[in-house]
Design a protein that fits this description.
Layout: E1 8-9, E2 12-20, E3 24-31, E4 36-43, H1 45-48, H2 51-66, E5 75-81, E6 84-90, E7 94-96, H3 97-101, H4 108-127, E8 130-131, E9 140-143, E10 148-150, E11 157-158, H5 192-195, H6 202-218, H7 228-237, H8 243-246, H9 252-261, H10 273-288, E12 311-314, E13 318-319, H11 327-344, E14 348-349, H12 352-355, H13 365-372, E15 376-385, E16 388-397, E17 402-412, H14 416-430, H15 451-464, H16 469-485, H17 490-505, H18 512-529, H19 534-548, H20 551-564, H21 569-581, H22 585-598, H23 603-615, H24 619-632, H25 637-649, H26 653-666, H27 671-700, H28 705-717, H29 721-733, H30 762-770
Parallel strand pairs: 12-14, 12-15, 13-15
Antiparallel strand pairs: 1-2, 2-3, 3-4, 4-6, 5-6, 7-9, 8-11, 9-10, 15-16, 16-17
Helix pairs in contact: 4-6, 4-10, 6-9, 11-14, 11-15, 15-16, 15-17, 16-17, 17-18, 17-19, 18-19, 19-20, 19-21, 20-21, 21-22, 21-23, 22-23, 23-24, 23-25, 24-25, 25-26, 26-27, 27-28, 28-29
Length: about 775
């Protein structure tokens, strides 16, 4: 129970409770002898009988009394009365640094000022042989006159004490983690050596000070995590994003100071606090001659050599939210920003698939820009707390790594849709003079959305991007939930269309005659709600291409999608497919090359390039493209199939056989099946390989339309013309999406032969006419 007002402790009279900590309370009191206001820290009754707690309490008093520094809270007295231990200190008016950071990053001038004051206090402590061991924002008080004071020396270590004092039970208060039986200190601010249970030194305080500096500069913790294990793992191995990346008002020189303070090895940090003070003073002198950087508007680009921006990449946003486990939200928001920027036109925007390859990367901005072949990079962070969002974005010129633009947004989740477009317009307008040409794409009106509906939509897209049957079905559930909450949300209808499409296409076992009409209906509903939604036009084009065989309609839908978002890689992908089906091979290759410009790291698009070269009978280019795909992902089975088909077409049968077998292995065929195919190749060459593959495929046949087409191709490859036509008819009746390959010849079935031997037959020509294909 808190002490009531009027309680007397020695010559001091309690007035009000100021706060409570893990070991007791702090009160405002009056010194009846001297008539002055003081602060009294009282050891709680539950700790008063604990020897360790009393020793800690006395240690704090001893440490403070040893120091006589203006930036250390002054000790007046130490007392004991009727079972109550107490310390009397100067009364401070103001707030803790923790409270100041809660409102966001600290102005850089204050970071330098308060940073120097705390550093001087620590230099004095270290000079007296005292290691604080608990440097954190809650233990730094900012007086209303602007002076910083270092508090709480309760777990300080004196150089004369034994190493056994570096361990002990510790209870941390407030919102900090509570731990027992591990090295003392607050988990999020511990040095690596403290986290490992090693003895703390003065350089341990330097690391903790670096963590505080980072939080002052960014408003975020350097090593976030939901559990002790997550935080310890980050402290021991993670490298935080440079403060200037999070806050453009922070100069690079400060990044270097923080980086050195946060070195994992104590020997790599500054040797003494004096070196830190010198570095801060030198930076303070240089900063005094520089104007403040205003980042409130897009015109706040750092001056420098103008650069023409024709392409950019939006990197995965960093999730700095206090609640973890919502990867889907920040990934989905990143995708939404990419889409919104791409819709504005005038600049090539790297698609989501390639951008997400850099999630959690340690690669530098110049390296990323070179790999993606872009002129600028957008990076940023997202903090979600309940239904509030804080988004910070920077547009970075990769060669100089200077900010061309920076902006922060604070919004309610219900305003999320307008935020997408607002961010896109800010990015575009912020570099408008550097963009070669800015189109005036017509964008529909922005509406509010139910926050839970948006959350469900992002979950749906998260699972949809995994592209397997189980996750596609999960995606449908989330899209349907979003539409129950907000039936007019067009992107959720488009997501539903894409999910049903892929279930009926090749990533699931849903009957195309069930899946594709559902996909088409959802795409049309999305377009009814938002005719400017490029993704919905693409969704419709996919169904028109692979199910309706409506080539003219599909081409129109692809063209409309690309007019609304020229960087939509999926639209380029399927436009290339339909052009190949129509034997317009040069145009098909041009489209897939455009898709690679927008999505250079996409496995499906890279692999599709190899397939299109194969369809055009450009085998050397097919081989090169397939090998490039396998550099990105060596276990991508379809790329091995394409490579094998192209090698076989060049009569490189031994190499082709190895690629086919690798494709089967990564495709989860069992060892007996693979070995049987290998023996067949050794016995009868490449024809024997395909015969054994066909035999196994026939045994595996379970009614799936995709396998029916593959069996037809295998039959054709070994000159079983009548059987091949029977299986093609079966695939046609099933409305198999694989039938789109009828004119192209397919590497799906791991053969290089085309349906050339079938083209002169009346049955084959009938199939082509029924599909509206040129035969």
């Amino acid at each position: 129970m808190p002490l009531p007002s009027g309680t007397k402790l020695g010559p001091y009279e309690i007035t009000t409770l100021l706060g409570a900590g893990g070991m007791g309370e702090v009160y405002r009191a009056r010194d009846l002898r001297l008539g002055r206001e003081v602060a009294i820290k009282v050891l709680g009754p539950s700790f008063a009988s604990t020897t360790g707690a009393v020793e800690r309490f006395q240690r704090e008093a001893k440490a403070i009394s040893t120091l006589n520094h203006p930036n250390v809270c002054t000790l007046f007295d130490l007392g004991y009365q009727e079972g109550t231990h107490y310390i009397v200190m100067e009364l401070l008016e103001g707030h803790t640094l923790k409270e100041a950071i809660a409102s966001g990053p600290i102005p850089f001038s204050s970071i330098l000022g308060w940073g120097l004051q705390v550093s001087n206090a620590l230099e004095s402590a270290h000079g007296a042989g005292i290691i604080h061991r608990d440097i954190k924002p809650a233990n730094i008080f900012i007086h209303r006159r602007g002076q910083a004071k270092l508090l709480d020396f309760g777990i300080a270590k004196f150089s004369s004490t034994s190493s056994s004092e570096s361990r002990g039970d510790e209870t941390l208060s407030g919102n900090e983690l509570t731990i027992r039986g591990v090295p003392v200190g607050t988990v999020a601010y511990m040095s690596p050596e403290q986290a490992q249970g090693l003895q703390a030194t003065s350089r341990s305080d330097l690391f903790s000070l670096g963590v505080v500096f980072y939080e002052m500069a960014t408003g975020c913790r350097a090593f976030p995590g939901r559990s002790t294990a997550e935080i310890f793992a980050a402290i021991l191995s993670a490298l935080p994003i440079a403060p200037s990346r999070m806050n453009p008002a922070i100069p690079r020189e400060f990044d270097r100071i923080v980086e050195r303070l946060l070195q994992k090895s104590p020997e790599a940090r500054y040797a003494t606090m004096r070196e830190v003070i010198v570095a801060l003073e030198q930076l303070s002198t240089r900063s005094a001659s520089l104007p403040e950087l205003d980042v409130s508007t897009p015109s706040a680009a750092i001056p420098g050599q103008a650069v023409r921006i024709r392409s950019l990449a939006v990197l995965p946003l960093v999730d700095l939210s206090p609640e973890t486990g919502k990867e889907y939200f920040v990934d989905g928001f990143t995708e939404a920003v990419i889409t919104a920027v791409a819709r504005l036109g005038g600049v090539r925007v790297i698609s989501r698939t390639s951008s997400m390859c850099y999630k959690g990367t340690q690669k530098s901005i110049p390296v990323i820009a070179q790999e993606l072949n872009v002129d600028a990079v957008v990076e940023g962070s997202l903090v979600r707390s309940g239904d509030r969002l804080r988004l910070t974005c920077h547009l970075v010129e990769p060669h100089s790594e200077e900010f061309l633009w920076s902006q922060s947004f604070d919004r309610n989740l219900s305003d999320i849709l307008s935020l997408h477009d607002e961010v896109a317009h800010f990015i575009t307008s912020g570099v408008r003079t550097r963009i070669q040409e800015v189109s005036q794409t017509d964008v529909g009106a922005v509406r509010a959305i139910h926050p839970e509906a948006y959350d469900a939509y992002l979950r749906g897209r998260f699972f949809w991007n995994k592209r397997d049957e189980t996750n596609l079905k999960k995606a449908i559930g989330y899209f349907e939930h979003a539409l129950r909450l907000d039936p007019l949300y067009a992107p959720a209808h488009s997501g539903l269309a894409d999910s049903y499409f892929y279930l009926g296409y090749s990533f699931g076992r849903m009957d195309p005659n069930d899946a594709m009409p559902r996909a088409k209906a959802a795409a049309l509903r999305a377009l009814e709600l938002d005719p400017h939604l490029a993704e919905a036009h693409c969704s419709l084009a996919m169904v028109q291409t692979t199910y309706d065989w409506d080539w003219r309609g599909a081409e129109s839908s692809c063209q409309r999608a690309l007019s609304l978002n020229e960087s939509l890689g999926t639209a380029h992908h399927f436009y290339s497919l339909l052009l190949s089906a129509l034997r317009r091979n040069d145009e098909s290759i041009a489209q897939i090359q455009a898709g690679l410009q927008s999505d250079p790291l996409s496995l499906p698009i890279n692999n599709f390039a190899g397939m299109m070269y194969f369809a055009a009978r450009q085998y050397d280019r097919a081989i090169a493209a397939s090998r490039k795909t396998l550099e990105l992902e060596p276990r991508f089975g379809l790329a091995h199939s394409v490579l094998g088909a192209a090698l076989e077409a060049k009569d490189l049968n031994d190499e082709a056989a190895e690629e086919y077998l690798t494709a089967l292995t990564v495709g989860q065929h069992d060892l007996q099946e693979c070995e049987a195919i290998r023996r067949a190749y050794r016995r009868s060459g490449i024809r024997g390989l395909h015969e054994e593959d066909l035999r196994q495929s026939l045994q595996r046949w379970n009614g799936w339309h995709g396998l029916a087409f593959d069996i037809a191709a295998l039959q054709a490859g070994i000159d079983k013309i009548s059987d091949a036509l029977d299986w093609l008819e079966r695939a046609f009746c099933a409305r198999s999406s694989r039938m789109v390959w009828l004119n192209s010849g397919t590497p799906f079935a791991r053969i290089s032969q085309y349906f050339d031997g079938l083209r002169g037959t009346a049955r084959f020509q009938s199939l082509g006419r029924r599909m509206n294909l040129p035969v």
